[in-house]
# Entry
Amino acid sequence: MFKVPTLVSLFLLVAPKAVFSSPCVAFDADFNLLAFGLDGKDWSAGQQDSWTSGSATDITTSGRPPFDGDNTTCYLAQFFNAIYFMNADKANPSDVHIYDAGAKAWSTQKVTTGNFDPSSFNTILDHDTNVFYALSHNELYFLNMGELKTANSTALEWQDVEKSPYPDSYDPVMALAQNHIHFLDVPGLPAGTADIFVIHFSFFQPQSQTYTAADGSTFPATHGQTASFFQAEGVQQEFAFIPDDGSMTYVINVENNSTHTLAGPTTKDPNAQYAASITALVQLDSTGAVSFIPYKQGDDATNAQAAWAKVAAIASAAPAGSTSSATGTSSGSKTSGNATGSGSGVAAGTRQTGAANPTSTDGSTNGAMTNGASLGALAGALLALVAALQ
# Structure
């Protein structure tokens, strides 16, 4: 006997399944911009002069993680042209996945956590030592990656360094420059000031450091995200700090202890990720849209005129909203690391909690709104079909 299909049964047959992904962006050692986990694939947009036209190259290959973690982050080990991924596999959150950018090959490094909590941490990757330093529940840990560009059969181990000097309520904002970890938005510190952990001597510097701008302005004492600018040779000397409100981009130079400003990102997204090369700062927002602002170290006049633009090559290959992001956060919070170290990913740490939707000053909407409208139209059509069959 023929049965009239229910609305639910018809909807389940034709409704698209949501694809949840936690993508990230990073550079390889030649400063090709790479996007991982967008639209279920990995992409290369090439070097900066090719970002605003054409289409990114599909570099998806076997052995990659599923990019379904709570908040995936990725970091460039510049000396080895390898990119390390954390929280890229929800089933195995302690694994570090390694992409050998030269060989275009993946491997998975097993890691023993001990008391380190892979669901709640903030980390940077030191440039010269190739060691991760992380705060997890206010305890400082390190993970030595050695010279790995391919995983080995022996598990690595997170090592406990010491208790941090900060209260348990501190939501860390960490940035790397000159082999020092800079802690911003530390309770009690004024605007324009950071605490410093000296990596090579493994101690917290007793005095905080102030970074002033030529006009006397400073970066605010607020939570935000960071990304370190690379150099052609040597360690990073500058890092970008983007407050969660996206009002401005601050560039802190630790060589002369100064602060400079760039325009804030077009999309004001507290959950965005950031990555930096030598000459650009890149944003991956939580809809999957990738944008950048050019940067020239030491040239305030040029930087003052710089504007954010879409990375059209990635938008052409993987339009924003084509992948539903499982991540909810970015800088300085739970479940992830800060891409500022030697690479990218979510900027300074990440928060697992869902945050406000991003907004764009160009008036564009995100993919969630489009999906909602499409499903509403589908539901209406199904209701009409059921009525006709009854």
